[in-house]
UniProtKB/TrEMBL annotation:
Transmembrane segments: 14-34, 54-81, 93-113, 133-151
The organism of origin for this protein: Actinoallomurus acaciae
InterPro entries: DUF3995
Record's keyword annotation contains Transcription regulation: no
UniProt entry tagged with the keyword Membrane: yes
Taxonomic placement: Bacteria, Bacillati, Actinomycetota, Actinomycetes, Streptosporangiales
Protein known as: DUF3995 domain-containing protein
Assigned keywords, A-Z: Membrane, Transmembrane, Transmembrane helix
Length: 157
């Protein structure tokens, strides 16, 4: 007799959660890339949000959106795919590195902005600081944590 796992025990849970995080963040970047402006100034700064230089739109908005969509596919692969050997090790390393980088980015920037130290803190305006502290940094931390948990589940299955 087979017993279905509890929802929290499903080895795909965190992979799908990380996929959702990536897809939502990609959608925000696509919205910004096609001309939407809600939240852009608080993320990229008022100057970039107003001027929208071509390089920023192509690399910083479309490029990030495509990278996030690749991340969503990777997260689904962590949830559903069970390769062996070197590919499995590579996926595990990529998952740990990416998740750790996202989490570290969030925590370090949060610390820099809270303490007011460094070039970043002095170059960021009050609007960006406010939204970075309460929205953007926690959002990156959430994504990093979900990717770390998805990688951990991937390793265990």
């Amino acid at each position: 007799m087979s017993v279905d796992p509890e929802p929290g025990d499903d080895p795909r849970t965190w992979g799908y959660a990380a996929c959702t995080w990536c897809a939502l963040f990609a959608a925000v970047h696509v919205y910004w890339a096609v001309g939407g402006d809600a939240g852009l100034a608080s993320s990229a700064g008022a100057d970039l949000a107003t001027r929208r230089p071509t390089a920023f739109v192509l690399l910083g908005l479309w490029g990030v959106a495509l990278t996030l969509l690749a991340g969503a596919a990777f997260a689904v692969a962590l949830a559903r795919w069970r390769p062996a050997g070197g590919l499995r090790r590579g996926m595990t390393i990529l998952g740990w590195l990416t998740g750790t980088a996202l989490l570290a980015r969030a925590l370090l920037l949060e610390l820099v902005l809270l303490t007011g130290t460094g070039d970043v803190a002095s170059s960021v305006g009050p609007l960006e600081t406010h939204w970075s502290l309460i929205l953007w940094n926690p959002w990156f931390a959430l994504g990093g944590l979900m990717l770390i948990l998805a990688t951990r589940q991937f390793q265990r299955t």
